[in-house]
Amino acid sequence: RGLTRSLSITSAESAFEKAQGERVTLPCTFVLSEEDVGTLDIEWVLIPADIQKKEETIILYSGDRIYNHYYPALSGRLQFTSSDPKSGDGSVDILNLKSADTGTYQCKVKKAPGVESQKIQLNVLVKPASTKCSIEGSQEIGKDIILKCASQEGTPLLYYDWRRVVTGTQGLPATSVLNKNTGELLLKNASKDYSGTYNCVASNRVGTDECSVELNVTPPINTAGVIAGAILGTLLGLALLAFLVFCCCKKHREKKYEKEVHHEIREDVLPPKSRSSTARSYIGSNRSSLGSMSPSNMEGYSKTPYSQVPSEDFERASGQNQTIASSKSDIAHKIGDITVV
Description:
Elements: E1 8-9, E2 15-19, E3 24-26, E4 30-31, E5 41-47, E6 56-62, E7 65-67, E8 78-80, E9 92-94, E10 103-111, E11 114-125, E12 129-136, E13 145-153, E14 159-165, E15 176-179, E16 184-187, E17 196-204, E18 207-215, H1 223-268, H2 275-290, H3 295-302, H4 318-340
Parallel strand pairs: 2-11
Antiparallel strand pairs: 1-4, 3-9, 5-6, 5-10, 6-7, 8-9, 10-11, 12-13, 13-16, 14-17, 15-16, 17-18
């Protein structure tokens, strides 16, 4: 009897490692036997890491039709590589890979009575990205300086490498100590010659990223002078503050004193009498006495000193005093005329 050939999968690759954003082809080529007469089905499933969960169908070819609506996470990114999978190529392409696409995929080919399957492990890694360099420690001669390098993104394990960019050489100083796992470069007992541009390269299995930093080693700072200057500046500031406070207090006291003096003056001074009323009362009293006067007593009246009018009620300028004197003289003449009649 002759040997019969059964359905078999011929692709051999079982593991792939790709970077995020790339594309991958998961192979699944097969050959059919003459005994396989049923409907051809090609099914791809995702096997979860948790064995308690069920596998999920992600794409299916059956009865000359393609069904790819099963797995929303791969919607628009998953397709059969061949436009005619029944020709013996059931491979699939996954586009724009994401780290969440990492997992175990299985290709199942069925054509009764033949059935065959193959598992493929896909590992999607993230390239190093957003790598930053920094300097820790004082950049002074004789000090220990640490150059740091770290990537904000990237799938472990990440490795770091430092190099100094100098014309004609890229070697690190002889006293430097590099930790490739942490990205720290220790420069012991730094000298002026250590100055320059340092470049760090972060890498993993799928990519690299880099950054650079400028190191400038200078002589030690005169700390004594800095401290003295700080103390002097502080004292001057305190003196200025004290002067301002003194000026404000003095100004406040002066204003307070002015208010008190003004208030006392207003309380001590009596309100002035009405000059017009005082004058009228004085003239009225003199008129009343004129009615009883006779030529015999006019002489005594004419000699009456007008200075007896209260000075506090008739403070006048020299011009005003003359006017009053002339007025009194007119009154005396009129009284004389009345007496003669």
